[in-house]
Design a protein that fits this description.
The longest helix is centred in the middle third of the chain and has 26 residues. The chain is globular. It has a single domain, classed as P-loop containing nucleotide triphosphate hydrolases (Rossmann fold, 3-Layer(aba) Sandwich). Helix 1 packs across helix 8. Helices cover 55% and strands 12% of the residues. The protein has a 5-stranded parallel β-sheet, sandwiched between helices. The chain contains 8 helices and 5 strands; from the N terminus they run E-H-E-H-H-E-H-H-E-H-H-E-H. The chain is of the alpha/beta class. Bound molecules: ligand Z5A. The site of ligand Z5A has 25 residues, from helix 1, helix 4, helix 6 and helix 8.
Length: 223
């Protein structure tokens, strides 16, 4: 397991949860929030794209299954970063300055995985936008929940059937797209020490033990 780093500019801590569809990001963010609050931390849970009223409007356009015209890949990339700029300005940076713990469902690693590896947009362009938009805001720690596509998609489609959810624009992509996205996440995790890779195909209790272990290391509490 990687050693946690800190965003030393801020009093707070910034943890991102990444991975493909249905791997358990939302479920484990809920677990992490409860655990951190039980250990006296003030927690802000948020998500991307979205997290503020303006960014949620952009999210609706990004996920909307049908537009009057196909959305160009570059438009998609710029919309993701436009939403992120608003999210950082309105939610993430103020929370980190207050000393809160920010738990974010997806962040720029998703852009590298989906728009970079998935769509094939140049990684240098994404990195230039990352620097412009994030400036000094970057995750202290990223938990990558990884599972074979069949596992995540199976869980997501069961949940969608139970809740009568509609298919969004990303979910209608083919398997090859999602294989490239997964490859992108794994490539990032292999070269960036802030990542902790968790096998999300394991039973939920086992996944949560791994999440808890990472949180313990971050707050310096022994098990
Ligand atoms: N996107 C992008 O392209 N570029 C970007 O920069 C960003 C995003 C930020 C919306 O993401 C889309 O935006 C996304 C990429 C794109 N599209 N896709 N695909 P989203 O995060 O809103 O949607 P999602 O990734 O599809 O998330 P999700 O379906 O909500 O999945 P999840 O949060 O990872 O899973 P969950 O809801 O916690 O769990 C799913 C079910 O499995 C649920 O019933 C759980 O109870 C169950 N579960 C969870 N863990 C387990 C275990 N371990 N065992 C058994 N069952 C489990």
């Amino acid at each position: 397991m990687s050693s946690p780093q800190t965003n030393s500019r801020f009093k707070g801590r910034f943890i991102t949860f990444e991975g493909g569809e249905g791997v358990g990001k939302s479920t484990n963010i809920g677990f992490a929030k409860d655990w951190l609050e039980a250990h006296g931390k003030t927690v802000v849970v948020t998500r991307e794209p979205g997290g503020t009223p303006i960014a949620e409007k952009i999210r609706n356009d990004l996920l909307k299954a049908h537009h009057e015209e196909p959305m160009a890949d570059l438009t998609e990339l710029l919309l993701v970063f436009a939403a992120r700029a608003q999210h950082i300005e309105s939610v993430i940076r103020p929370a980190l300055e207050r000393g809160d713990w920010v738990l974010c469902d997806r962040f720029t690693d998703s852009t590298i995985a989906y728009q970079g590896y998935g769509r094939g947009l140049p990684l240098e362009q994404i990195d230039a936008l990352r620097k412009l938009v994030q400036q000094h805001v970057s995750p202290d720690c990223t938990l990558l929940l990884d599972a074979p596509l069949t596992v995540g998609m199976g869980r997501a489609s069961r949940r969608a059937a139970e809740n009568n959810e509609q298919t969004d624009r990303f979910e209608s992509e083919d398997l090859a797209f999602f294989e490239k996205v997964r490859e992108g996440f794994l490539a990032l995790a292999a070269c960036e020490p802030r990542f902790t890779l968790i096998d999300a195909s394991q039973p939920l209790e086992v996944v949560q033990q791994a999440v808890e272990q990472q949180l313990r290391e971050m707050i310096g509490v022994q098990s």
